[in-house]
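Example 3.2
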Amino acid sequence: MRVMHEKEVAPVVTRQTPEFIAASFALCGFALATVAGHVAGQPLVRVLVVAVLAMFLCRLVGVWAGRAAMVAVDEFLEKYAGDRPVPEQETFEESLEVSEDDAPLASPVSLGRSSQSDRLAA
């Protein structure tokens, strides 16, 4: 199982997506041409020839549509990631480091407050 890092974007669109879209277009074209030819009462050979031609033409349209969709999704994801940058988060080790600027400026005693033990001793 692959673990994603903080700044990695999940692969929504893979390089095979246009082929899936093209195959779907081709099968839909074949099915539609077959049903339409059968309903129209055409001879079986003519129905199958027209259905195969429709399948090839629909596959070409599907490849074009799949590639266009892939480009559109890639552009959207780039724009989305650019508009919403991932904020840098401080790690636990970095939060434990104390610099000289973070040192306390004064102790409570120097501010005129005394501890409870000092009040009891007096």
